[in-house]
Amino acid sequence: MAKQYETVIGLEVHVELATKTKIFCGCSTAFGGAPNTHTCPVCTGMPGSLPVLNKQVVEYAMGIGLATHCDITRVCKFDRKNYFYPDNPQNYQISQLYQPIARNGYMEIAVGDTKKKVRIHEMHMEEDAGKLVHDEWDDTSLVDFNRSGVPLVEIVSEPDMRSSEEVIAYLEKLRTIIQYLGASDCKLQEGSMRADVNLSVREVGTQEFGTRTEMKNLNSFKAIARAIEGERERQIELIEEGKSVIQETRRWDDNKESSHAMRSKEDAQDYRYFPEPDLVPIVIDDEWIEKIKEKQPEFRDEKLERYKKEFDIPQYDAEILTESKHMADIFEETTAICGKPKKVSNWLMVETMRLLKEHSMEPEDISFSPANLAKLIGLTEDGTINSSVAKEVFEQVFEKNVDPESYVEEHGLKTVNDEGALEEVLKEVIAKNPKAIADYKGGKEKALGALVGQTMKAMKGKANPGMVNEKLREMLN
Q1: Which of 213, 195, 118, 193 is nearest to 162 (CA)?
Q2: Is domain 419-476 classified as CATH 1.10.10.410?
Q3: pLDDT digit string, tens, across residues 225-272
Q4: In the chain, N or C: fewer CB atoms in 10 Å?
Q5: Where are the domains of the chain?
């Protein structure tokens, strides 16, 4: 019988924090910018420059720690991690090894109907490195220090995950928590959330872990899932052939859907950690922790339950609406204005999601105001515009955040409720379509739909469909 294997996975997730300035200096953390323009002597490692800690970094890290059930370390310190690499200007990175800011947490994840806890070993604060830009044409490498000194938290899980589905569930939940806190935008494609995957396989029923590899360069959830499947298969193949898995760091190439070795980790690298002499320890008291707890938002899990009870909307809709805090805020604010949660939910679930997909946008990118969506719902509800005009107006609201009331007025889009005008148009439509009239009178209900369509077209879509339907039947019968 073929052997059964189990995958054992732990993650190291780096998250860039959404502070305006870097962790130890006043330079901007904005993404982009011409190379080396967001820099100063501190973040380019000039001799004699001294770091000064950004308090907001500590508060974001505490918020993430509390939201993931971690213990906050009351006296935490920074350490120097010494290594040479061209994008590391000081030849050391200021990080935390001995007393990280948070430890021993967990997150509950769900895959299908199965729930499980994934333990968090620790979370520490550190500075990001610069970025090497390789110029293949000149065969040179240039360094951009804009990212150097951008604040990071690294969240290290225990090896509690057993499949790519569990890994994605863990990452999605972590991303949602951090976005709800406003601590980071967690955009994988911009590198503000990065995950390294530690993976090993073992025979089902074995207690000992196999030899693990670490995979880097994963910048989308799909790439992470593919890399896990690819690496699992590679390791099983080696074991089946009687070969050994080598402990090493591997780089995933998503285009080729394969990985290659970067460096071996036979011996753990000696980073010669020692306490950072230029920074004092951070003392965190109960009062500070309470302040951070009071600022914590209502998280997605709580929102989900409340939406179902308070607004009586289905589980599926509530899940889509709460996936992004920005979307949830728009839903709540619009509902507060117009008092029609079901209608608001429908506009967000159908038309908004359609337009986001068409424009390749994320829910975070929605720029229309809740007030304008509420006005549009009002115009539809009181019959000022019909549903097809409403969709047309909504596209303008979505793209340019126009005021729907002014837009409808300026473009003459109000529904025509003038019975006299409608009768005139109907007489013309009836005269032009003898076949459809005969079909309808012969019992073909569908023929009426064609006549309604012709009428709407003649009235440039501004007639009241209900009224057209009623009047047509009246005239034909």
Answers
A1: 118
A2: yes
A3: 999 999 999 999 988 888 888 888 888 888 877 788 876 655 556 889
A4: N
A5: 5-287, 298-410, 419-476
